[in-house]
Fold:
Amino acid sequence: MKSLNIGDLKIPIPIIQGGMGIGISLSGLASAVANMGGIGVISTVGIGLIGNQTNANYRNRNIEAIRNEIRKAREQTVGVLGVNIMSVITNFSDMVRTTIEEGIDVIFSGAGLPLDLPKYLGEGIKTKLVPIVSSARAASLLCQKWKQNFNYLPDAFVVEGPKAGGHLGFKAHDLDNENNKLENLVSDVLRVTEDMKAKYGKDIPVIAAGGIFDGEDMYQIMERGAAAVQLGTRFVATEECDASIEFKNAIVQAKEEDVRIIKSPVGMPGRTIFNKFLSEANEGKRRPEFCRNNCIKSCNPKTTSYCISEALLAAYQGNLTNGFAFTGANAGRVTKISTVSKIFTELKKEYQSAKQRFK
Structure:
């Protein structure tokens, strides 16, 4: 298993822990993954809604909260840390500027195209910029716009397929399209990155995400050219995960038939563990009275069937009566709460076993 190099940043084990909000991946999970040699990722979405921030202003609460989480993680690891910043959040600029000021190693950004992300970099800043895309077209457009406007190319790409958890970068009717299988998307984006290398001499590693569960999945997709993999769901059911025990148990107890696609208030399809809350939302029983935080650009509180930030916050806190859990397609394969260390050990063994069988 080769290490992952993102520019001058070396990641010993090519495993990235996906950013999961609200509050599912904070300093606890991120530092544990970083300590194992992967990239631990803190989710910034709604981060100001949790914890004990002293500022009453929503914007300032978020800034204070992400500073605190990065600093807490740094106290627990000398490994590589990243943040996930959705481009559709209204405080995108605040989160990017603050995390760069805190010296974060990597910014992962998806849920839309972060077309202006390089503008936040300055002289001497070493933070790597890694967009999350679901098509070669999006990867090519980002390369073109970043190069044209900022003379900068992505430091890597995360290519997220339709089996990922949470918000998905596909229309609902495209989720089962053969062309959108992860291995095909990775191959398509690799052609874009190879073209960029030929033109500009920059290596842009491709990280595969969405439906990666075990070491054999890792081996198979890395044999197709992916430099690393990103996993989310498998890391939820760990002792180090920052979510409530109720949230973790929802993942452990989920059966394959419980995992369903919904239409999120954000405007994208999302993969969830379907529950009574979502059923009531479909019946119009969970409509918000007003918008408290104006957190997502694409959410219209006048027409939405529920407030997604409040629902995800409730789930993080363990209140699944008033919320729900996002998950990847493989939630039904999670059968117990483990530890990050054990999962890394299992992934390495499974990878080596697959390598011996398929070589």
Summary: The longest helix spans residues 58-76. The longest strand covers residues 128-133. The mean pLDDT is 93. The radius of gyration is 19 Å.
